[in-house]
Design goal:
Layout lengths: L1 H10 L9 H57 L3 H7 L2 H8 L4 H18 L3 E6 L4 E4 L17 H7 L4 E6 L6 E10 L8 E9 L2 H8 L5 E5 L5 E4 L14 H10 L16 E7 L6 E7 L1 H37 L1 H64 L2 H23 L3 H22 L14 E3 L1 H11 L1 H7 L2 E5 L3 H4 L5 E3 L1 H19 L6 E9 L2 E8 L29 H11 L3 E6 L5 E7 L13
Parallel strand pairs: 11-13
Antiparallel strand pairs: 1-2, 1-5, 3-4, 4-5, 6-7, 6-9, 8-9, 10-12, 13-14, 14-16, 15-16
Membrane topology: Multi-pass membrane protein
Protein name: histidine kinase
Keywords: ATP-binding, Cell membrane, Kinase, Membrane, Nucleotide-binding, Phosphoprotein, Transferase, Transmembrane, Transmembrane helix, Two-component regulatory system
């Protein structure tokens, strides 16, 4: 390029005189056109590129907003059932009726501590009508809630009025923030007040913030109806405000102690961020996602630069044409040499622009590849998590599936030998056995679907013998590992006739039987004689299903509470005591009944009475 300019300067004196006046006017016009056209062209190109980039950024922000809103909703909703269930717990109701019963207080404290440990909450506690905490999961800690009065909290007032209380605040005792879910404990219909107390679960949001901190690097924060940031993956933004708070709002916060000990200063300006916000369902909260908008500005600057260069190039091309026409009129030889020089100069300039455009294209492509790689990595992580969860569910039934698969192989090999010998009748028998075994495998693997799909909820005729057989087959490997015997006792069909079909839902009936069998196997696991006996018989118009074990039996004091929610005779951490309670509810839906007793020869016996199914007709809803 330097050599071309020097050559141009060497040739310029060969021109015959000064430039013609007409050409000088056109050159001035082109200069004015450059001054007039380049800035608007650059501005329009930059604005168009910025608009496209911001639109793409907005789509990304909206997608991330939906994701963060979904994770927040799932986090605050998954703990809702625990305080609701405790609100109907008999021990909680008894404690509110007799708050000075020390043994009852100790039992409820321990129950709350066990449930809190399993659910990973900040705290579970029970409050009287005056707001005094009677029992708490942190009863052994220095910051225990027991004896403290939280009547000033809005969630307590909401629950006491018979509604679900939801509230986020800084803990006045623990000095830790959390989301409070409160449910009323209802009094009997003859009581003076409708509610006798409140059950509260406090959920910590630190795990959710830690999860957000590791997701894609966006800045995310949640505000309440006053514009206070209380959940965020940017620690410096926590308990900041979107705008300065009026004095009356600050006085309101001081009265409720919602954000006690925080400054509530405004957020710093978000000049280089694109912020999208959206509501959280069933709350007055809003989720905000702030994405860095500087890449859009950089893209706009690049587009404006390219447009300006292109405009200048077009104007330069016009100038070249004029120069060529003037050179042709003045001197053909000079025109040829000038034309060559101009072409050479345009070529060099075009090469530079092409190189710049190529580098820009490479950078854009590299950025696209990086974004695609990041998306693929994220999808791989999600898929790996799904496969890990599926592997954990499937690992428990591998042993049960392996036995029928081995049997299928044996039957198939025998069928081949029998086929060679022409024993087609025995081949048919083996094939029928294989069919049954494959159905057994399908039945076992069908258990995986229960994690994601509920039963139909409709009642119809179900074979009790088939349900028992499937349930015993599902737990056969566990019984074999314990060295326990599972036997089925059936009535004599010659004298009593065949068992009728019962009115039930097949999947839920098998769930009840499996639960009773697993409890029986747990009961005999530490005994010398390990026997689980299942019997089916007819009595008083019902089909009776009995499960008896040779375990230690059930203490007489525990029999009346055996089917209560969260009651269990197992060690702490082995179970939550919901299996028998759920089985009780299922049998009640069938219109039947379930009872427990101690067998006269030792061990426990559970009896399930089921109604016979009508001879024909469509499926029925639960009783």
């Amino acid at each position: 390029m330097t050599r071309s300019i020097k050559q141009w300067a060497a040739w310029r004196p060969a021109w015959p005189g000064a430039l013609p006046r007409g050409f000088r006017g056109l050159a001035a016009a082109l200069a004015l056109a450059a001054c007039a056209l380049v800035p608007p062209a650059s501005w329009f190109a930059a604005e168009w590129a910025r608009g496209e980039a911001l639109e793409e950024l907005a789509e990304t922000a909206q997608a991330r907003l939906s994701l963060y809103t979904a994770t927040l909703t799932a986090e605050i909703e998954k703990y809702r059932v625990l305080p609701l269930t405790l609100a109907w717990d008999p021990d909680v109701a008894a404690l509110l009726a007799s708050p000075r019963d020390a043994a009852l207080v100790d039992r409820v404290d321990r129950k709350l501590a066990a449930l809190n440990a399993g659910a990973s909450l900040s705290a579970l506690y029970v409050m009287a009508r005056d707001g005094t905490t009677l029992a708490s999961s942190n009863w052994t800690e220095e910051t225990s809630f027991i004896g403290r009065n939280f009547a000033f909290r809005p969630y307590f007032r909401e629950a006491l009025a018979g509604r679900v209380g939801r509230y986020f605040a800084m803990g006045t005792t623990s000095q830790k923030p959390g989301y409070y879910i409160a449910y009323p404990v209802w009094a009997p219909v003859w009581a003076e007040h409708h509610t006798v107390g409140v059950v509260v679960a406090k959920v910590a949001m630190e795990p959710l913030e830690a999860t957000w901190h590791d997701m894609a690097g966006e800045r995310v924060f949640v505000t309440d109806r006053r514009g206070v940031v209380f959940i965020t993956n940017v620690p410096d933004w926590r308990f900041r405000t979107l705008a300065p708070l009026p004095p009356e709002v600050r006085r309101e916060f001081e009265a409720s102690q919602q954000y006690e000990g925080t400054g509530l200063e405004p957020l710093p300006p978000l000049d280089s961020a694109l912020v999208h916000r959206g509501p959280v369902p069933d709350t007055d909260w809003k989720v905000h996602v702030a994405l860095d908008s500087r890449p859009a500005d950089a893209r706009a600057r690049s587009a404006g630069l390219v447009a300006g260069i292109a405009t200048l190039l077009l104007l330069a091309a016009g100038l070249v044409v004029l120069q060529r026409r003037l050179a042709l009129a003045e001197r053909l030889e000079y025109q040829r040499r000038a034309q060559l020089m101009l072409e050479h100069r345009v070529t060099e300039r075009t090469a530079e622009l092409s190189s710049a455009n190529l580098r820009l294209t490479d950078e854009i492509a590299e950025r696209g590849r990086a974004e695609q790689a990041a998306r693929r990595a994220q999808e791989d992580l999600i898929q790996a998590a799904k496969l890990a969860a599926l592997g954990q569910m499937a690992a428990g039934i591998v042993h049960e599936v392996n036995q029928p698969i081995s049997a299928i192989r044996s039957y198939a090999e025998n069928a081949a030998l029998l086929l060679d010998r022409g024993r087609l009748d025995l081949v048919r028998g083996n094939l029928l056995e294989i069919t049954g075994l494959t159905e057994r495998v399908a039945t076992i693997t069908r258990q995986l679907k229960t994690f994601a799909r509920k039963s139909s909820g409709m009642l119809g005729p179900v074979s009790p013998r088939l349900a028992v057989d499937r349930s015993m087959a599902l737990l056969g490997a566990q019984a074999a590992a314990l060295g326990a015997d599972m036997v089925l006792e059936m009535p004599d069909e010659a004298t009593q006739g065949p068992l009728p079909m019962v009115l039930a839902d097949e999947a839920r009936l098998e769930q009840v039987i499996v639960n009773l069998l697993r409890n029986a196997l747990d009961a005999v696991s530490a005994r010398n004689r390990r026997l689980v006996a299942v019997s089916l018989e007819q009595e008083d118009g019902h089909v009776l299903l009995k499960v008896r074990d040779t375990g230690p039996g059930i203490p007489e004091d525990d029999l009346p509470r055996l089917f209560d929610p969260f009651f269990t005779t197992k060690e702490v951490g082995v179970g939550l005591g919901l299996g028998l309670s759920i089985s009780y509810g299922i049998v009640q839906d069938f219109g039947g009944r379930i009872a427990a007793a101690n067998h006269e020869q030792g061990g426990a016996v559970f009896t399930v009475a089921l109604r016979p199914a009508p001879p024909s007709g469509p499926a029925l809803p639960p009783a």
